[in-house]
Amino acid sequence: MRKLFILISFILFGACAFAQPDTISINLDNVAYPYPVKFLHLKQEGQDIKMAYMDVKPQNPNGRSVILFHGKNFGGYYWTSVIKTLTGKGFRVVVPDQVGFGKSDKAYIHYSFHSLARNNNILLDSLGIDKITILGHSMGGMLATRFTLMYPNRVEKLLLEDPIGLEDYRTFVPYQSAEDDYKTELKTTYESVKSYYMNSYFTKWDTSYDYLVKIAANVNKSTNFSRYAKVAAMTFEMIYEQPVCYEFSLIKVPTVLFIGKEDKTIVGKALLSDEEKTKHGQYKVLGPETAKKIPDCKLIEFDNCGHIPHIEVKEEFLKALIGNI
User: Fold this and answer.
1) Do residues 104 and 70 lie in contact, with contact meaning Cβ atoms separated by under 8 Å?
2) Which residues of the chain carry a pLDDT beneath 50?
3) With CB atoms 3.0 to 4.6 Å apart as the test, which of 81, 92, 145, 263 could cross-link to 244 if both were Cys?
4) Closest CA to 245 of 167, 160, 152, 134
5) Which domains does the chain have, with CATH numbers?
6) 162: closest CA among 230, 261, 274?
């Protein structure tokens, strides 16, 4: 029965990947995820908030668990190959959509990496998971770092995949208020999202990436898009105002840093001059520099790869992941 459900989910996800509806709800209600989605009920700032997650258990458990933290413009839907690979090796895999993202509620609250980390700690408690390995991608890398600093005794290993926040954006990106960012978010179109993804995330575009654009862009036709845009602005502010790069030396667990050498991601890049863009976001430089700051860190670099190795160089990344987890 479980195999049948997974097969049906895979078929639906595959269909979803290539034929996203024109209008997507801000909680991705009409986006199929590869495994069953459950909800953790939280109380935050006097509000009842639902946090979505997948809890995927292997057929032959090895006794270890991994939690996957997604990037800012993504949700649990883009981890499919990673989940399948890890569960195939016996790992239990927990895949949350952080509050404000994916299928989780888009709450009007103060967003902080501390509060998001706390939410994930509550989630692990609810699942009875004591020790965890974390894989954080992009913004998820900042969150994974904060979680590790807050709960070092819970983390067995920290895995960072092209994390943002390797530099302090406040020192070179002009400040914009949440209201300014909100106005920018309201201008989101399919064309603007695809252009950003093509120029920022991948070294070479493949049509198989189109589903990522459709999910990220087609929320703009939802009647609740203004809420989505407001929360997106609030989480941008969180990234800008809450750097983790000054605390890498405090990490006390074994760490692996996976870096696409052609990644040039800068949060707030559109606000910079062309000259400034060349000075920052150079992951082929930031990766080695960051690895030196973390006491017990192994650096793994991928040639001809941008911001999302687990998609752009999938097989190479998965091999490196399994070999270093």
Assistant:
1) no
2) 1-19
3) 145
4) 167
5) 26-323 (3.40.50.1820)
6) 261
**Three-class SS state of 42:** strand
Query: Residue 58 burial by CB count (10 A; 0-12/13-18/19+): exposed, middle or buried?
Result: middle
At which residue do the structure tokens 């408690």 appear? 125
pLDDT value of position 18:
39
130-163: b or e for each residue (b if 16 or more CB lie within 10 Å)? Answer: eebbbbbbbbbbbbbbbbbbebeebbebbbbbbb
pLDDT for the residue numbered 21:
64
* Residue 107 CB burial class (10 angstroms; 0-12, 13-18, ≥19): buried
**21 torsion bin: left (phi>0), alpha (psi -120 to 50), beta (else):** beta
CA distance 325 to 153: 17
User: Long-range contacts for 315-322 (Cβ within 8 Å, ≥24 apart)?
Assistant: 317/161, 317/258, 318/81, 318/82, 318/85, 320/258, 321/82, 321/85, 321/86, 321/135, 321/159, 321/258, 322/85, 322/86, 322/89
How many C-beta neighbours within 10 Å does residue 2 have? 9
263, 162 contact by CB (below 8 A): yes
Q: What is the Cα–Cα distance from 88 to 38, expressed in whole angstroms?
A: 21
Q: How far apart are CA 166 and CA 160, in angstroms?
A: 11
